[in-house]
Write a structure and sequence with these properties.
By secondary structure, this protein is mainly alpha-helical. Helix content is 72%, strand content 0%. It has one domain.
Length: 250
């Protein structure tokens, strides 16, 4: 990896791409190298998860785990502007509502939400809430941090291993990152995960491999690549799958 592959502005750029937090203004030139910033995606997950964890921990002082989990999820949705949830809904509508690649991409671009999208949002949000409630009840206050890190580490992998299916949109603007940058993202996610829960992290990480491969295979078969919506759906699916494994272990 060349020296200029990682710059101090990369984390700010990753935060701009993945959150709606008020951030310092970045020069226009910084956005020309968005694909380089994907190494910081797990760090963004750490920050979002930390804010959710703080909210959940504070809420547990007064309310039961179910309420704390709901508030922690609400914080994550507000911080990210529900962009991942939007991607999940659009992907569900497009991948299952269209009969060919062109129609699927057309549906995914439509701002309206259909039956598949509504059901995907309801089911995935309910699962996230129930699973986080179970984790908080078991004392796993740190769970949002781990889930945030690992789910966002899957995004660079999808971006590097699949071409952009549409040729436009956020994913196209960011570009296809080099694998050297993706490996940095994976390494950061591993260090943070093992630091959070120790050797148990290996089980969670290994379980997500088939999930990411499955999302990759689905996107390639249905639309021939990835889009910003597919990336959002991948984040949601990997978060739920990681939570399922954690609950089973804990």
């Amino acid at each position: 990896m060349r020296k200029n592959d990682i710059l101090p502005t990369d984390l700010l750029l990753a935060l701009v791409l993945l959150t709606r937090l008020p951030l310092p203004h970045l020069p226009k030139a910084a956005f020309a190298h968005q694909r380089r910033a994907v190494w910081a995606f797990p760090v963004v997950g750490l920050m979002v998860g930390a804010l959710a964890t703080g909210t959940g921990a504070l809420a547990l002082v007064w309310w039961p785990p179910g309420v704390a989990a709901g508030l922690a999820l609400l914080v994550q949705i507000l911080i990210t502007g529900a962009m991942h949830e939007d991607g999940l809904a659009d992907s569900a509508d497009g991948l299952w509502g269209g009969f060919d690649r062109a129609r699927r991409l057309e549906i995914m671009k439509d701002s309206h939400i259909g039956t598949y999208g509504v059901l995907a949002l309801l089911m995935m949000t309910a699962l996230r809430w129930v699973l986080l409630t179970a984790l908080l009840s078991a004392g796993a206050i740190w769970a949002p941090v781990l889930l945030g890190v690992l789910s966002r580490a899957s995004l660079p992998v999808m971006m590097a291993s699949l071409p952009n299916a549409r040729g436009s949109g956020l994913s196209q603007d960011v570009g296809r990152p080099r694998w050297s940058v993706v490996y940095v993202a994976i390494a950061i996610a591993l260090v943070l995960s093992f630091g959070a829960i120790g050797p148990i992290a290996a089980i969670v990480v290994l379980s997500l491999g088939p999930v990411v491969l499955g999302m990759r295979a689905l996107a390639r078969a249905k639309i021939g690549g990835q889009t910003g919506d597919i990336l959002g759906a991948t984040q949601q699916v990997t978060e739920v799958c990681a939570a399922l494994v954690l609950v089973a272990i804990i």
